[in-house]
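Tokens for chain A. Residues wanted.
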């Protein structure tokens, strides 16, 4: 996490899923003056964050339906997914791509990228994310940031014995 922060200067956090909540369990602050403010123990509705979306995408469909039955969802911004059906469709994309992008959905002017962390059995047990001002990075750097976050997740996973 520290290496990722040193490279991107954005706040990096690791979280786990606890019911409907994405809970931050580790954090390294970024170095920009304008940055994501977070803390260990912070809880957010999982569907409202990139980190939470990665965690939800790993759930079996039956668990996802139990957590999010059909109907409207809590929305933080007008660009956020608004129904359980939309969420399930979006999580398929997250699962297939191996990362989630929050482009000002959790909060205006904030962007985040997250990727899954796997244990030795290959199961997703956590997610790593970077968050920062939406004005950074520009589109070409965003693609690079996605790969760096995915690389960080792969390194953590390997340290945990993931295949």
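Reply:
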């Amino acid at each position: 996490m520290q290496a990722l922060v040193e490279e991107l200067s954005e706040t990096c956090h690791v979280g786990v899923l606890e019911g409907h909540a994405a809970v931050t369990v580790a954090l390294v602050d970024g170095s920009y003056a304008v940055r994501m403010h977070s803390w260990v123990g912070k809880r957010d509705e999982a569907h409202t964050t990139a980190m939470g979306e990665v965690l939800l995408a790993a759930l079996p469909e039956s668990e996802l339906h139990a957590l999010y039955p059909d109907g409207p969802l809590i929305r933080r911004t007008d660009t956020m997914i608004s129904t359980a059906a939309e969420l399930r469709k979006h999580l398929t994309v997250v699962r297939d791509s191996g990362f989630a992008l929050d482009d000002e959905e959790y909060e205006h002017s904030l962007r985040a990228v997250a990727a899954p962390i796997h244990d030795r059995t290959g199961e997703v047990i956590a997610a790593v994310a970077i968050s920062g001002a939406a004005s950074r990075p520009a589109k070409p750097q965003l693609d690079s940031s996605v790969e760096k976050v995915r690389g960080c997740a792969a390194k953590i996973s390997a340290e945990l014995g993931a295949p």
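The two ends are 20 Å apart (CA to CA). The chain has a mean pLDDT of 91.
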